[in-house]
Design a protein that fits this description.
Chain lengths: 396, 285
């Protein structure tokens, strides 16, 4: 399906190109070549909805710019990465080597993004990460040509340590999948919570993507902690909140989580998620003109509500656009391009943010409460939170 | 008390696994067909529960509808595709049914989309039994266990005690001789395959309220199903039941006692069983 889509795009691109050169050959030659943007995102598989939202967010920003970024027309090269780490190197190489893209945009899955990071480091191609939170991408593996417009796994979970401590919880059980994002989130929560004086009664893990939680729920009930912190997303998040509520624990041992626990899943979670507190860099009801404008444009064009993934895709295009504008659309002087990207202040629907020395957003993390089908923002859990970027020597 | 509840968790999980794996072992054992698309049928079941419950307003009306649809789908697939492969090597079956996985996933994406969904527990069973001071057990989970037990008994009775079951067993041990005795083996095969599909779809439907409905859910189930079929012995329903319960126990207690090994515990169990009984617990060598 992807290859067909791409084929159609290429034929269309060829068509416009030849038409333009036939009508006004000199004009066509005088214009700068098109900006080659490689989108490597999941369009099938578990994360298909996320890949689509990111692409649509990206498109909204490009459209606001009159179909251009940094004054240049755009030619897209799209690859469906299927969230499949085994195919990641080949897929990224195809875009970099064969399609010779100027910039690589992707992806959702942390395992896939680490392969893209490696290729970006080897080839020097500009990489913009619109979701995957692997700490290393802007930590030990950071590079001058790698930027992220989403979050590091460390970021959304960290403020929850403070939130839960302030609520009076002292003894907490954590539960997550034993894989990168889960472990990094719990680690970051633990760091903040124990620093304040809280203690972790037990850290529980289950293999990814196992969703048989009953054994852990029974154990939580007998450990009787003050509260529980979890990291789950998607189908696992739905099943966990439902199982937790069905076991009668929801009103006895409060449940908290990083925002992905209740993002894009509320309709399916129904009553089981009502009232849950989570932390994330986006939410419903953020009052700023940019958010209003973006949500209106997104809803009008795609007929659905924009989510955090759409915002991250939107910001990826904003970042690329403003960076390129600063260097007049040229990739010739990489150093000044990266310099421009580092200094950019993104006026994002989530609120304005800037780049950290390791090229990760310094952003507000919101505290949200589930009300109906919305993650209502009820405050800022941590203002201008910067990832510690451990192991990154950039700008240090 | 905690341990008693963990035992309950194990049995309950094991029975649910049996419900999904029984269809696979039936098709594998009786027809010799390796059906990789079995997980997809489970996924289709869950999505059917979601769409039909929304259409008809209740899971109770969705269930019979879904089973009829599943049976029809099974018949069509057997007649159009599977029946052409009985005489071929297993590799062809693997290729065909792997292709079916891709087709079903893509169709799911086109028809229902890639979002995750939930199915409401029917009002009648939407309650919890208090077990300890702070833990209660959802009635619907107990209901699933009861349904699995009834179904296991029903399958045992049909295959061991009825005329139809006798024909099925005869067809499994020698198809040509059975045909020579005047039994339409093609019809038997179509029936068994359709029943296997219906079992997987039924499992997906009935599990949907507790498992939720999401893309890729079938692939997770497929692997554990094959583990059960291999441990139990290919084609043995009794073996599948015992293997399912074993896996329920190993998985549940593995998570509690040896969390570091929880990911590999069931595979270790499979390796150990195969070491001593290469054909599985109840398989004919």
């Amino acid at each position: 399906m992807t290859s067909r889509r791409k084929f159609v795009q290429q034929v269309a691109a060829l068509g416009t190109l030849s038409a333009a050169s036939a009508i006004a050959p000199s004009l066509a030659r005088a214009q700068a070549a098109k900006l080659r943007v490689g989108l490597m995102l999941p369009y099938t598989g578990t994360y298909a909805a996320l890949g689509t939202a990111i692409t649509q967010g990206f498109n909204i920003a490009v459209e606001e710019n009159g179909g251009k970024l940094g004054g240049r027309d755009i030619e897209y090269f799209t690859v469906d990465d299927e969230s499949e780490p085994a195919k990641a190197t080949d897929n990224a190489n195809r875009l970099v080597q064969r399609d010779k893209v100027d910039v690589l945009v992707g992806t959702v899955h942390s395992g896939v993004v680490m392969a893209m990071v490696k290729i970006a480091r080897d080839s020097g191609t500009l990489l913009i990460i619109p979701n995957a939170g692997a700490n290393a991408a802007t930590g030990s593996q950071c590079a001058p040509n790698i930027f992220r417009t989403s979050f590091s796994n460390w970021q959304p979970a960290h403020p929850m340590g403070k939130v839960m401590y302030d609520k009076g919880h002292r003894k907490v059980v954590t539960l997550t999948w034993k894989y990168g994002a889960g472990e990094e989130s719990v680690e970051s929560f633990k760091e903040a919570f124990t620093k304040l004086g809280g203690s972790i009664v037990k850290e529980m893990y289950l293999p990814f993507p196992n969703v048989e939680f009953q054994a852990f729920i029974t154990e939580i009930a007998s450990l009787k902690p003050d509260a529980v912190f979890v990291f789950f997303a998607g189908g696992g998040a739905i099943k966990f909140t439902k199982d937790y509520a069905a076991a009668g624990l929801k009103d006895k041992i409060p449940l908290y989580g990083s925002g992905f626990l209740t993002d894009g899943t509320l309709e399916a979670q129904g009553a089981s998620a009502q009232g849950l507190l989570t932390t994330l860099h986006y939410g419903d009801g953020i009052e700023n003109p940019k958010n209003k404008q973006f949500r209106y444009a997104y809803g009008k064009k795609y007929g659905i509500q924009a989510d955090v993934y759409a915002v991250q895709g939107y910001d990826a295009a904003l970042l690329l656009g403003s960076g390129l504008t600063a260097v007049k659309g040229s990739f010739g002087d990489k150093k000044s391009l990266y310099g421009a990207l580092e200094k950019v202040k993104i006026d994002s629907p989530r609120g304005a943010w800037t780049m950290s020395r390791a090229h990760n957003p310094i952003q507000d993390i919101y505290l949200r409460r589930v009300e109906g089908n919305a993650n209502q923002v009820i405050g800022v859990a941590w203002k201008a939170l910067e990832d510690p970027a451990r192991g990154c020597k950039l700008g240090a | 008390m905690e341990w008693l509840i963990q035992i309950l968790n194990s049995v309950q999980y094991g029975l649910l696994l049996f419900l999904v794996a029984s269809g696979l072992t039936l098709i594998f054992g009786i027809m010799g067909v390796i059906n990789l698309a079995h997980g997809s049928f489970y996924m289709i079941g869950a999505y059917l529960a979601f769409s039909l419950a929304e259409l008809t307003g209740s899971l109770w009306t969705a269930l019979p509808l879904g089973i009829v649809l599943a049976f029809a789908l099974g018949l069509v697939l057997e007649i159009l595709l599977i029946s052409r492969l009985y005489r071929r090597d297993h590799l062809y079956q693997v290729l065909l049914t792997f292709g079916l996985i891709l087709v079903f996933e893509e169709m799911r994406s086109i028809l229902v989309g890639d979002d995750v969904h939930g199915v409401a527990i029917p009002a009648l069973l939407d309650a919890s039994l208090p077990l300890t001071e702070n833990l209660s057990y959802p009635v619907y989970r107990l209901f699933i266990s009861a349904v699995c037990l009834v179904l296991a008994a029903l399958m045992y009775f049909t295959i061991q005690k009825t005329r139809l079951g006798m024909m099925v067993r005869a067809g499994a041990s020698n198809a040509e001789m059975t045909q020579a005795l005047g039994i339409n083996i093609r019809w038997i095969h179509a029936l068994v395959f359709a029943a296997g599909v219906a079992l997987a779809v039924f499992a997906g439907m009935i599990a949907a309220p507790v498992s939720s409905v999401f893309p890729g859910m079938g692939n997770q189930v497929l692997i554990i199903c094959f583990v059960i079929v291999v441990i139990g012995g290919i084609g043995s329903l009794k073996g599948a039941l015992i293997a399912s319960l074993l896996i329920g126990f190993v998985d549940t207690f593995g998570k509690v006692l040896l969390p570091e090994l929880a990911g590999v515990a069931v595979y270790l169990l499979m390796a150990i069983v195969l070491l001593f009984r290469p054909a599985g617990l109840y398989g004919r060598p």
